[in-house]
Write a structure and sequence with these properties.
With 289 residues, the chain is of the alpha/beta class. The protein has seven helices and 14 strands. It is globular, with a radius of gyration of 19 Å. This is Uridine phosphorylase.
């Protein structure tokens, strides 16, 4: 069935609507970063850059490193942007731009987020690296899709019961990383964690400037939550959306977090750029070796 122009939207140059990319512009391995300025911090390590494109907050560089073709792309902040990025990335490899039909043979991408994050336990140190084994989303993105089969309902129920999650908030969902892709990136330098994806940076993460929060002990409840051997380790704003949509679309995804803040101790890294650069180098070395 041919997709209608209102569903599958292309620009005048036949590029996908928001990302402004053509199918040949992306590599099988895609690194996502939140900050558009971080795209060049990744691609500066490439041996060769063949494509530089950008539109709005979505900037993309594609090139090669150690003979492997890679794409690095900025998503901006939040799972609302992840909805755009993941769906359009999938369209670039799995929809025929000429016929506007879904391809009979589908392609699976490797999608690796390199991002910053804050831990909520004193034993997760500043400037450490954490791979998200699971993510719990406090946004509503995945609830708009037929996604019950990929959600971990027992963990979700235990979390709602533990936190007394209010009914007028979005129902939390739990999704897992891709173990095969994760095995390529793990080492003794990497912690495994259970990441909470928030819908904002201030109130939703328990920060207060001038506004009072609804639950003053939210982060305390998060840090106290346990399900078997799992505990929520860190807070950020994209991972659950990446994991959920990647799994639904048949792609492999892993989120690599550089811990810059410790919310339990009030610390913030005094070398955030240096630590993030080390995680970039680590990830590039692992995926191109």
């Amino acid at each position: 069935m041919q997709l209608s122009p209102s569903e599958f939207i292309l620009n005048a140059d036949n590029s996908i609507y928001h990302l402004n990319l053509l199918p040949e512009d992306i590599a099988p391995t895609v690194i996502t970063v939140g900050d558009p300025d971080r795209v060049s911090e990744v691609s500066k390590h490439f041996d060769h850059i063949e494509i530089k494109k950008g539109k709005r907050e979505f900037h993309t560089h594609t090139g090669t490193l150690n003979g492997k073709r890679l794409t690095v792309m900025s998503t901006g902040i939040g799972t609302d942007n992840i909805d755009i990025v993941l769906n359009e990335l999938d369209a670039l490899v799995n929809i025929d731009f000429s016929t506007k039909k879904i391809k009979s043979k589908l392609t699976a991408l490797d999608i690796i987020r390199i991002g910053t994050s804050g831990s909520i336990h004193p034993d997760i140190p500043i400037d450490s690296f954490l791979m998200s084994e699971y993510a719990i989303g406090f946004d509503s993105l995945l609830q708009f899709y037929d996604s019950s089969h990929i959600q971990h309902h027992e963990i979700q129920k235990a979390f709602v019961d533990h936190t007394q999650w209010y009914n007028h908030k979005s129902t939390p969902y739990v999704v897992a990383y891709d173990k095969v892709l994760g095995s390529k990136l793990i080492s003794d330098e990497i912690l495994l964690g259970f990441t909470a994806t928030n819908v904002g940076f201030y109130g939703p993460q328990g920060r207060k400037l001038r506004l009072e929060t609804q639950d003053n002990d939210l982060n305390g409840k998060l840090s106290a939550f346990r399900f078997n051997n799992l505990k929520i380790t860190n807070l950020e704003m994209e991972t659950s959306g990446i994991y959920g949509l990647a799994k639904l679309l048949g792609h492999r995804a892993v989120s690599m977090n550089c811990i810059l803040a410790n919310r339990s101790t009030g610390e913030f890294s005094n070398k955030p750029a240096e630590s993030t650069e080390k995680l970039i180098q680590y990830t590039l070395q692992k995926i191109t070796q």
